[in-house]
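Design request, tokens follow.
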């Protein structure tokens, strides 16, 4: 008897639900569309920048990017990631003609001393247009690996941009020896990194591997020169382009990125029953 009663009760309940369901949808559109807003998306559009401290166009490129972003209304939604790229990893720490970049470049490129000096004078004028002051007569040519190790350490502290700026300025304007660990330690401390952390970094092979990995990533794009910008993983800028051109590309990439981040979920509804027992 008890089993029959239970099944009878279930049958009655199913009948009631069916009646309520049919009544709810009678004369109504079966499909409805509502828009719900997801939780705020805290992600930012990423711009990856590959550069080498020894590259004069990279410092100019950095300034031009900064100027472009200063005119971008939603720059708070942009994340810059600095990447290491040694133009010539084979350069000795103390190369021949270290203190004469004109002769060093002339020998490397197979051009005359006069051609090299004229080329550098042109770069000085380019730098001036971006508000930078280059002193090629002070430069001490060296391998840039140690500088990149400091940048990789700075990245772990959220200080990569500060490290890039200090290193560029120290090399092109002040003529500092960026192969000197003492000099690099001072630079690191000036941007807020502890001395013992800097010393450990120069003895940590993991940072060397990060430098090499960054370079390999750029080469995978088919790029062999810097500055190199990859915006939202789709738009590539090679070389120190003018701020207005960089701004155009960033704006276009941002609109694409923003459309991909659409916070509105458009949900199409049919007849359904909710967990509270209501049907409509």
């Amino acid at each position: 008897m008890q089993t029959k009663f239970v099944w009878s009760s279930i049958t009655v309940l199913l009948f009631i639900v069916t009646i309520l369901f049919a009544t709810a949808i009678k004369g109504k559109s079966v499909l409805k569309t509502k828009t719900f807003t997801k939780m705020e998306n805290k992600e930012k559009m990423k711009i990856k920048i590959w550069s080498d401290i020894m590259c004069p166009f990279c410092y100019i490129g950095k300034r031009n990017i900064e100027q472009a972003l200063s005119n971008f209304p939603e720059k708070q939604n942009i994340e810059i990631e600095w990447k290491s790229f040694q133009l010539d990893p084979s350069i000795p720490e103390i190369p021949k003609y270290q203190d004469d970049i004109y002769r060093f470049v002339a020998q490397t490129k197979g051009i005359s001393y006069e051609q090299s000096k004229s080329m550098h004078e042109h770069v000085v004028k380019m730098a001036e247009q971006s508000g930078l002051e280059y002193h090629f007569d002070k430069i001490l040519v060296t391998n840039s690996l140690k500088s990149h190790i400091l940048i990789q350490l700075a990245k772990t502290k959220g200080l990569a941009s500060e490290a890039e700026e200090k290193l560029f300025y120290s090399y092109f304007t002040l003529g500092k020896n960026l192969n000197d660990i003492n000099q690099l330690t001072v630079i690191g401390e000036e941007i807020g990194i502890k001395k013992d952390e800097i010393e450990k970094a120069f003895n940590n092979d993991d940072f060397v591997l990060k430098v090499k990995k960054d370079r390999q990533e750029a080469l995978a794009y088919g790029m062999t020169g810097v500055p190199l910008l990859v915006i939202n993983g789709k738009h590539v800028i090679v070389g120190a382009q003018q701020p207005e051109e960089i701004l155009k590309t960033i704006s276009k990439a941002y609109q694409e990125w923003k459309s991909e981040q659409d916070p509105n979920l458009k949900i199409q509804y049919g007849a359904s029953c909710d967990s509270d027992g209501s049907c409509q």
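Comment from the thread starter after seeing the answer: thanks! The CA atoms of residues 152 and 207 lie 6 Å apart.
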